[in-house]
Structures are given as structure tokens and as C-alpha cells.
Amino acid sequence: MATQQVSSKKQQELQLQYSNYKNTLQQIAQKIGDLEQETEEHKLVIETLEPLPQDRKCFRLINGVLVERTVKDVLPALKTNSDGLKQVLDELLKQYKSKQTEMDTWKKKNNVQVVQQQ
Fold first, then answer.
1. How many CB atoms within 10 Å of residue 37?
2. What angle do CA 28, 16, 93 make, to 5 degrees?
């Protein structure tokens, strides 16, 4: 009976660890999706502004405040932000792959087989 309790406790620990892995992967995937959407929005705005005259006025939302600027002022900042977003996105993708590999290794090590994937 004592071995059954130990086995049950180990099974609960494995289930908890598995849930932690799945939650972490899901959170990273959510962040990746958000950043991909934001990167696409930046790309669209950059593509829209590039053919316009440099002295044309445009508006930019900075910390909830709409500010009037020129295309010449806004375009470099948008490109910088877009590049930064791409770097963060690359890092998150690496982090996701690393965590996925870690989870797969853990599953093999502990002989975990998923009965029902959600």
C-alpha cells in the first residue's frame, strides 16, 4: 500500500510538471502571436509611409498621446521599433524551441506518454 501511495504521488508530480511545461509553452506562443501581429502592423505602416513626401505631416500615438510629426521624423523610429520587435520575436522563438526540446527530453526521461492532448 505504501508503494501505491508513492507511485500516486510521483504520478501527481509528473502531471504537475507536465502542466507547467504546457502552460509555459502556451504563454510563450501567445507572446509570439502578439509580437507577430505588432510586427505586421509596423510593416504595414512603414510600407504606407515610405512613398509619401518626407515633409508630409502624420500622426503617431506615443504612450496614449496623439502627436503630430512629419514622415521624416516618424519613419526612422518605426523602423527601429520594427527591428527591435523582430529581435525579440527571434529570441522568443528560440526560447519556445528550447522549452519544447526540454519538455520532450523530460518526457523521454520519465517515460511520460500523453493519454489525451488538449
1. 10
2. 15
Among the listed residues 46, 34, 58, 109, the one whose alpha carbon sits nearest the alpha carbon of residue 83: 46
Q: What is the pLDDT of residues 47-82, one digit of tens each?
A: 999 999 999 999 998 899 999 999 999 999 999 999
CA–CA gap between residue 28 and residue 23 (Å, rounded): 9
DSSP state, 61? E
Confidence of residue 1 (pLDDT cuts 50, 70, 90): very low
Percent of the chain topping pLDDT 90: 73
Beta-bridged to residue 69, according to DSSP, are 58
Cell 521624416 belongs to: 72
Q: CA–CA separation, 35 vs 37, rounded Å?
A: 5
